[in-house]
User: Fold non-specific protein-tyrosine kinase from Streptomyces lannensis.
Amino acid sequence: MDLHGFLKALARRWPTVVVCLLLAIGTAFAATTLSTPVYEARTQLFVATRTGEDTTQLNQGQSFSQARVQSYAEIVTTRQVTAPVVEELGLHTTPEELASRITARAPLNTVLIDITVRDTVPLRAARIANAVADRFTSVVERLETPKRLSGSGKSSRSRTSPVSLGVTQEAVAPTAPVSPRPVLNLAAGVLAGLLLGAGLVALRETLDTTLKTGEMLTQFTALPVLGAIPYDRNAPKKPLVTSDVHSKRAEAFRKLRTNLQFSQVDDPPRLIVVTSSVPGEGKTNTAVNLALSLAEAGVSTCLVDADLRRPCVAPTFGLVQDAGLTTVLIGQARIEDVMQQSGGGLSVLTSGAVPPNPTELLASARMEEVLRELADTYEIVIVDSAPLLPVADTLGLASLAQGALLVVRAAKTSRDQVRTAAESLDRVGVHVLGTVFSMAPIPKGGRYGAGAYGRYGELPAPRAEAARGAAVTPSGPHHTSET
Assistant:
């Protein structure tokens, strides 16, 4: 995935980034609120040597102090310093725990030692820092006092130490805590949230093999997308676009109708199978509304429900389902006896009774005869068939047709499913006219159809009459159509 694709993925999955950002900020805020404030008190010591006024001795003393001061800093956190401080101040802690809250630092090329103490109480932090400095001074001076042999042969210390430590800055109670830091925690939360959100988006894009846009579908299948049907939450309740002819869905099906008519200008297909990879992709909805759109344009159209496992055409129109295609196939009726009419001049051949052997019926010679008879009677026959992957019904049926439309649901159908379905149709020699991208997200920034363009597709009376005369439609023996 390149940078452009990743940025598009971020824009498409922005709720994931926002949720991660809010969670990270909330965590940072909670950590800041629940953390106990910690204060730091700082004292500074100056290390000097006891020398005379001779310049050489002063320089030697200075070099001696700088050489020793780094070692002195390591003594600050030893037990011989912290244990007396704990006892002196009556602290409810151990010398080791106190040592973990003390930091000693000797800047290079100086004779200074900075002692910092952290505590949850400002005044106590200052008291501990000063007590540590006093005790540390005593320990260092005692360690630096040279030993001498007494008259009895035992060693003893002289009364003076060559090193002297003085306090240059006493610790005072701090006024503000050094931890937690709200601004720093917030910045860290924002950064962590953005990184987490971007990581999750990248992971989901890597694991998600569905097709999100029509461009992705075209690139993957090398088939033209003849129509992108926008998602409409009211579609299950109002599946027919005739309920609102100015809606985005209605305009999308009119565009699909036009693209289909222009896709094969020299040899327009008259028998078209509409199928999908798996159930739930909008296959029946596409077949029904495409047939209605063709009939609306004046094209003599017949819709056949050949999904003999889960027929849905009759319930969609409110027609009788018991008598239909299967009735004709077993010879109990003629086509004209069971053909029904819906609104808009569309002829509908429902599925009829559900048979026990749909695959054999749909691939039979009698089915081929029925389709040929319908193609001789109508300009276009739209056949709603079963999904390709779960059952083999459509493969035998599609080989009898002149073309197929493959319906792909946006962000739902996987690449493997689309690839397998297309390869299945290719193996039986079916010409796939193109794909239909169903339930596609509505592009931002446009109220296409009934919005900024008004009642798009509706022409004034004089222009409408002129359009009828110049319409390009499939050839047929009975009707002249309009687009």
Notes: The chain has 18 helices and 14 strands. The domain at 39-146+159-169 is CATH 3.30.70.1130 (Alpha-Beta Plaits). The CA atoms of residues 399 and 430 lie 6 Å apart.
